[in-house]
Amino acid sequence: MKINSKYPITFVEVLMLGGLLFLPLLPLLLAMGFGLWTRQWRLAGQGCFAFLVGICLLIAGDAVVALLTTPPLQYNQHNPFIVGLLISLGVGIAAGLATADDVGRREMIGLAATAQMAILPVWFGICFVFGFPVLDSTPPAQRALTFLLNAITIIIAALCTYALLGMRGESLRSFSAAATRD
Predict the structure, then answer these.
(1) 8 A C-beta contact, residue 59 and residue 125
(2) Full-prediction pTM beyond 0.70?
(3) I need a labelling partner for 30 at 20 to 30 A (CA). Which of 16, 42, 105, 164 fits?
(4) pLDDT at 1
């Protein structure tokens, strides 16, 4: 049974689904950056694992959406590589500042990150069902590499922000010790 079989899936629907799914994933990128900076390897590893699971859920979720709708996917444009890196850099810095001293609105930063991180897995999920666009000049492997570089840029930008702000892991270790005593 197809849902909305009269109308093809639109990019706005895809972005809304991806945005709602990705919004909780930004802290996982930050966990990797903070865990690396403070040498809390378990935190960095858990953030990485949870991020990978989230990306798989994005792909699978939108593959299901594609199965319930009709083609074609009416979106096949992506940001140029340098634009994506600059946006990811800004998102990483803003997210690092937001978690370091509670400035800004985190949900808005999460939505900005959605533009960089949720679009590609969602696009892949739908393309796995409908097929990859023939008219597109950017190969899927290059898009996947861009996605990976955007994620790394957010992690490194957050890590550098934490370093510049002088954040340390000692307070978290003492918090963890106090929590285990209770």
Answers:
(1) yes
(2) yes
(3) 16
(4) 38
